[in-house]
Design goal:
Strand content: 5-15%
Low-confidence stretches: 59-103, 106-115, 517-531, 542-546
Number of strands: 7
Oligomer: single chain
Mean pLDDT: 83
Number of helices: 25
Shape: flat
């Protein structure tokens, strides 16, 4: 019989006089001495680092399992023997038994079994479950791929699952690619089921100066629920010319098999991007140039109105004041102390950023709310010197102008938040909200000074020009106007001039005439009677179709307008069968988002992925991680 093999070699391999632990990473020091086959070093390593102990032998297990029964039998035999001897000696005093040795039961050795998690092996099924959970964690939390090889993760898994073998980066990438393929299949299936789709696009540059283009898709499903997907984040090695951007867009549409379904592409106001959209061959809408990001257009109008000299001076002074509190720890702490003394929320001042929407309003609002603690800190000579106080002082006249600007900019912040909300905000909202903004918040007041009057006049003129709010004989019906008519909250077109409403309705009728619907969608009623068939025969099919469309359109006009705060998609879901043709057109136009903010949000995700410590990340891995995070609700 050969020599028995040690249990150690299930977890280690031997090469000469060296043993190598298979539970350790290959890049770690996992080499131990085993001269002549000794296993002491590797056993100590397994016990201390991996909590792996020697398994019990079969003999130990048998003895341990029968230990309690044998103890009971032994105690019973001892008691019976003692009782019999006592009774025998008492009943037969005259008879003397020969001397016998007392029978003492042999003590059984007890074997203790340890039911410890460290003795349990991690099965292949559980290992794969942990692998997938780790890949999902990295996708949803924007973690680096090297997270699974970090010391902290090793220590964590040593507690949760001591015998789990840490996954390698290449194996982790395979799981991430599996998630990507699964999500792509789900997105393709959803986009295949819709009749039309809308895309948004924007370009950005990473910290490594790599240029990317992000494209997202939007649609309404059969239940009138908005869907939004991030399709790709590709590197843009070519120059950002209109032709190159158009080629990128068409390639993405072809790869996702939506080339014939995309009706609109929402972009910012950059000329090269706008021209690229006009070059896309599968775009069928003549008014596509009108559909630019409403929030971006609104910010351009605000920035133009803020260029007035006195307003620019106030903004510069406010920015310098905030910068002082940002760079001086003493001033910042004193501001917090003053806020606490006055019973105000302890908040820091906010700095404006040219590329961040509404940041000027947020800066001015925070400064104005903290006027008292700011003035107290600036007047405290133990904190602020005379030179600094004079340099950053804000006069009473400037405080009044800051208050006026906060009041003026507040409605713009509200409308931007509405258009850029997480929930789908259709482009049908743009023109009605702008009309309310101009009528209710930008009317001239008698107490307006010269700078405020200039601001109002400038921004009113620029908004009307950018959004084509003025109507004349040369004006054409835009996509936003058609969308507003198809939105039950604005279908009466109260926000449009009287002579423009007729043209909008005529354009909708022309679009409805081009819609082909099957008989089941058009006629939701029961099978027509013989009399109806005879009348249809006499009147003719063409006349019947025109009458049906006319009736449907008139019935839609007769419907009461929905309250502005209610959900238009729920309204259409319950009335789609009543207005089948108009419903098809509404699903096409109400799926158009008001802004391209879905592409803008990818910038924040990409900033977390390609940070200062990961600037060398491959572009394909950037696309993978951004894609998974943006579509994380679809990860299986």
């Amino acid at each position: 019989m050969g020599k028995k093999r040690s249990w150690v070699w299930e977890y280690a391999k031997r090469k000469g006089d060296k043993a190598y632990c298979q539970l350790c990473d290959e890049d770690k020091n996992n080499e131990y001495s085993c001269v002549g086959g000794t296993t002491g070093s590797i056993i100590r390593h397994l016990k201390i680092m991996h909590k792996v102990y020697q398994p019990e032998t079969s003999t130990s297990k048998r003895l341990s399992s029968s230990n309690n029964l044998e103890e009971i039998d032994t105690l019973q035999d001892t008691d019976s023997l003692t009782n019999s001897q006592s009774s025998s000696s008492s009943s037969n005093n005259s008879f003397t038994q020969p001397s016998q040795h007392n029978i003492i039961p042999r003590k059984r050795r007890r074997f203790l079994t340890h039911d410890n998690d460290t003795d349990r092996k991690c099965s292949p099924e559980r290992t794969e479950t942990i692998h997938k959970a780790l890949a999902k964690l990295i996708s949803m939390n924007q973690l680096p791929l090297s997270f699974c090889s970090s010391p902290g993760f090793y220590q964590f898994m040593a507690v949760v699952e001591p015998n789990y073998k840490i996954i390698k980066e290449e194996a982790l990438k395979k799981r991430l690619h599996f998630f990507k393929l699964s999500i792509e299949e789900k997105i393709r299936s959803d986009l295949k089921a819709v009749q039309s789709a809308v895309c948004t696009s924007d370009c950005w540059s990473s910290l490594a100066q790599n240029s990317y283009i992000t494209i997202t898709a939007h649609a309404l499903n059969n239940d009138w629920s908005p869907m939004s997907f991030t399709l790709t984040t590709q590197e843009m090695e070519e120059r950002h010319t209109a032709l190159n951007i158009a080629d990128k867009l068409e390639n993405v549409f072809s790869n996702w098999e939506i080339k014939d379904k995309v009706t609109t592409v929402i972009t910012d106001n950059a000329k090269n991007v706008v021209n690229a959209v006009q070059l896309v061959s599968n775009t069928t809408n003549d008014n596509i140039s009108d559909v630019t990001c409403a929030a971006h257009s609104l910010q351009l109008s605000i920035n133009k109105a803020l260029r007035e000299d006195s307003i620019s001076e106030i903004l510069d002074q406010s920015s310098k004041l905030v910068g002082h509190f940002k760079h001086s720890n003493l001033a910042k702490q004193s501001l917090l102390n003053k806020q606490k003394q006055l019973g105000m929320p302890e908040t820091s001042l906010l700095q404006s950023c040219k590329t961040r929407w509404n940041s000027i309003f947020l800066m001015l609002e925070r400064i104005f709310k903290n006027r008292c603690p700011i003035s107290a800190v600036m007047a405290d000579r133990s904190v602020t010197s005379t030179h600094i106080a004079q340099k950053f002082e804000i006069s009473e006249h400037q405080w009044l102008k800051i208050e006026a600007l906060v009041i003026l900019l507040k409605p713009f912040q509200v409308i931007t938040s509405l258009l850029c909300g997480e929930k789908h905000s259709p482009t049908s909202m743009v023109r009605p909200l702008l009309k309310k903004l101009l009528d209710n918040h930008l009317k001239p007041q008698d107490n307006d000074d010269q700078s405020i009057t200039y601001f109002k006049q400038t921004i009113i003129f620029d908004i009307k020009e950018r959004f084509n709010l003025e109507w004349d004989s040369k004006s054409r019906v835009s996509v936003r106007q058609i969308a507003s008519f198809l939105d039950p909250r604005y279908k009466n077109l109260d926000h449009e001039p009287l002579f423009a409403r007729k043209n909008i309705r005529s354009s909708v009728i022309n679009l409805l005439n081009n819609i082909e619907t099957d008989a089941h969608n058009v006629n939701t009623r029961c099978e027509p009677s013989l009399q109806q068939s005879a009348l249809e025969f006499l009147y003719g099919d063409d006349v019947t179709e025109v009458n049906n469309l006319t009736t449907e359109f008139q019935n839609y006009l007769a419907e009461p307008q929905l309250k502005f705060h209610l959900n238009p998609f729920d309204w259409w879901k319950s009335r789609e069968n009543k207005f089948p043709r108009i419903g098809i057109l509404a699903k096409k136009y109400l799926s158009i988002p008001a802004t391209s903010v879905s592409s803008e949000r990818c910038f924040s995700t990409a900033g977390n992925v390609v940070n200062s410590k990961r600037t060398s990340l491959l572009t394909k891995n950037v696309n993978l991680l951004v894609f998974l995070y943006q579509n994380r609700n679809l990860i299986p």
